[in-house]
Design brief:
Layout lengths: L2 H10 L7 H4 L4 H6 L8 H18 L1 H14 L5 E7 L6 H4 L13 E7 L24 H8 L7 H6 L4 E3 L6 H10 L12 E3 L1 H5 L6 H16 L3 H16 L6
Parallel strand pairs: 3-4
Antiparallel strand pairs: 1-2
Helix pairs in contact: 5-7
Length: about 250
């Protein structure tokens, strides 16, 4: 088992940690979603996301400026944090094995995601990637407040404008972590059949990931979203995101 996954197992401890066998897929969800076409209803969906992103940026512009100022004044380092994430996989599953143009299958189109910086500079230099935790010492005081209200995600509205993300969709993951998780959760790559989002069915129903079992739970929510993806479903999730944010449900 690779070093990253071993470190997560060590940090999680022995009590209640799911075994790899429990996380293996039966294959039923893979078969059901194998022929889902990415970006169905593309024109209407794109128009909706552009409208919401532009409206939100205009309405929240004073908030964005205030957050940027607070981040700048309270901790050393850049205001924004960027990171490569795995995006939409436009390839049809039947042709994936025939694609020889890529030296390495990342699982989807990589893109750079934007956030307000919530951690101290080089916070993961020693620990590497670890599960989310309450009172995380890597997080700045302002960053903790931003995370509780999910305000650190607001710069991803620019990712929506660029067409890399939607307002609603599965949350994108880093390529290295994506590669680890798809080895242990067989359904994980199926999340990439929809464009990643700022919020999603998993985010309004579950907290930050603290274990592989949390990831598995979110994967099932993500696949359920893909099954019933529509403009009406996106509106429903957007509306349900508001109380989640205001009541700080699942945010640390």
């Amino acid at each position: 088992m690779m070093r990253w996954m071993e470190s997560l197992v060590e940090r999680t401890g022995s009590g209640g940690f799911p075994t790899i066998q429990k996380l293996r897929s039966t294959g039923s969800e893979a078969a059901e979603l194998s022929h889902v076409v990415p970006d169905k209803g593309l024109t209407v969906n794109r128009a909706l996301n552009l409208l919401v992103a532009v409206s939100a940026l205009i309405l929240l512009f004073p908030v964005l400026l205030l957050i940027a100022l607070l981040v700048r004044l309270t901790s050393w380092g850049p205001i924004f944090y960027s990171q490569v994430r795995v995006g939409l996989d436009r390839r049809r599953p039947s042709r994936a094995a025939q694609n020889h143009r890529r030296e390495r299958d990342l699982g989807g189109q990589p893109f750079t995601i934007y956030k307000f910086r919530t951690m101290w500079v080089d916070a993961e230099h020693q620990s590497g990637a670890v599960w989310a935790q309450q009172r995380d010492p890597r997080v700045t005081p302002v960053g903790r407040l931003l995370r509780q209200y999910r305000l650190d995600e607001l710069p991803q509205l620019f990712n929506v404008l660029k067409g890399e993300m939607n307002i609603v969709g599965p949350r994108p993951e880093r390529p290295t972590i994506f590669a680890e998780l798809r080895e242990h959760i067989a359904e994980y790559p199926l999340r990439q059949r929809a464009k990643p989002g700022i919020t999603g069915l998993a985010q309004i129903n579950h907290h930050y990931d603290r274990s592989l079992e949390d990831v598995r739970t979110k994967v099932h929510y993500d696949l359920e979203y893909i099954r019933r993806q529509s403009v009406a479903e996106d509106f429903r999730i957007m509306l349900k995101t508001v109380p989640v944010v205001l009541l700080r449900r699942g945010g640390w």
